[in-house]
Amino acid sequence: MDIKIMIAAHKPYWMPQEPCYLPVHVGHALHPDAGLGYAGDDTGDNISVKNPHYCELTALYWAWKNLAADYIGLVHYRRYFTRREVRNVEARKNEILTTAEWESILKDSPVVVPKKRRYYIETNRSHYNHAHHPDGLDCAEQYICVAYPEYLSAFEIVMDRTWAHMFNMFVMRKDLFDDYCKWLFEILTIIETRVDITGWDAYESRIYGFVSELLLDVWLEKNGIAYCEQNVSFLEPQDWLKKGGAFLKRKFLPGNKGY
Q: Which of 32, 168, 231, 252 shows a CA-CA span of 20 to 30 A to 117?
């Protein structure tokens, strides 16, 4: 079983040494002299120059157009699929799934996604609109209505949920991966042509990465794709008090998106 799981990275960082993992320097076309030593996302058919707005999706596009494998996936240099959550940050490295474990999991499931992130008091749509400019998600919905009306019911179901599979992280069987990327990047390209992000700050300009996080669940829902959920661990300490405060600030104070 040939498994390629890209690790999206833009700076030097510790990397797991399992053969299934492929570190990818995202935005390499913009920083060719960074010297990270990782594969660049700017060979072959690529959108590397769009990295400031597409984030880790430039690695996804590169893999779609240039990688051959039975299964393809995406994680982040500080965020991985793990067996379980442990309190010690350094110990989390030892919980990252091995190649053998991935082979076992993927024998039984064609898609692996993160465990649900639950918002409880927010739907996916309201959370997105409180955290970001709504234009990108609205545009995606408008295009789906016209080009993919059969997806509209799934879109509405996902927007009304209070949970989602976030982070643009997954591992997929190659045929499913190809189908998903074709659908996803068509929609994101339309958003590019219709939403003017001039004047948006650097955070909000990552619009395509933000929208795609919710589109994954729309695609899974509409196509009835069987998947399993796996724990995700962050390799650095997180300030949950700061994160909670930022969420409340975005929700209740107008004009604070992107902080």
A: 252
